[in-house]
Amino acid sequence: MAVTDEAITKIKEMIVRGELRPGDRLPREPDLAERLGLSRSSLREAVRALALIHVLDVRQGDGTYVTSLQPERLLSALEFVVDLHRDDTVLQFLEVRRILEPAATAMAAAAMPEEAVAELRRHLESLPAGASPDELVAWDLELHRRIAEGSGNRVLHSLLESLSGPTHRARVWRALTQTGAVRRTMDEHRAIVDAIATRQPDVARSWATVHVAGVEAWLREALAPGGELSGAPGGAPAREEPPLSR
């Protein structure tokens, strides 16, 4: 095991054992290095690495602290990972989303409070006629955020937030290039919300699967040789059409 990896492991073990809790300040660097049997340089590298993934918070002039360790904070680093990948790899993230999102939607159908369901319906009807692709995607992201939150599972909600936002380019491309994409999106969302409102988890799960699989299938076809995005420089749409209306 590399020295830095060993240092990361030892700090992680302190957190897992409860020696360091959320919000705690780490001991002074020389004291912690001696306690863990590490060089100060390897400890410093470990702290930098753990700060990058939001386990530690380095405050200049104050010290280093364990963060809240909340799922949404720790998983936000996943967005960076998604953004670094090319669009053929984004397909794999969409595949994961196709597995997780239907489960969250089914859970929302069983657990989402009535008031939250009513807010979800209001949001469903809030998209203006003639919305641009960017407006459609922002509206879509918020709808999915509310549903994931309604699952009642914070880890699942955070995972979906990380997977959903960074893949929004695929949804913009679809709205720009696929005829009827906006109408299809609206119809699928309405079916999902209806299933949640009527407390039908299996129906909600099915419609969520159809919805996410549609984006995935379109991107897979568009990235294939001869597809709409296969020859576009820098992964940009090969053509751009006027915004579609509702």
TrEMBL record:
One matching Pfam family: FCD
PANTHER family referenced in this protein's UniProt entry, alphabetically: TRANSCRIPTIONAL REGULATOR, GNTR FAMILY, UXU OPERON TRANSCRIPTIONAL REGULATOR
Protein name: FadR/GntR family transcriptional regulator
SUPFAM superfamilies from the UniProt entry: GntR ligand-binding domain-like, Winged helix' DNA-binding domain
Residue ranges occupied by any HTH gntR-type domain in the UniProt entry: 1-69
Record keywords: DNA-binding, Transcription, Transcription regulation
Family annotation (InterPro entries): GntR_C (IPR011711), TF_FadR/GntR_C (IPR008920), Tscrpt_reg_HTH_GntR (IPR000524), WH-like_DNA-bd_sf (IPR036388), WH_DNA-bd_sf (IPR036390)
Region (Disordered): 226-246
Keyword DNA-binding in record: yes
CDD domains: WHTH_GntR
Keyword DNA-binding annotated: yes
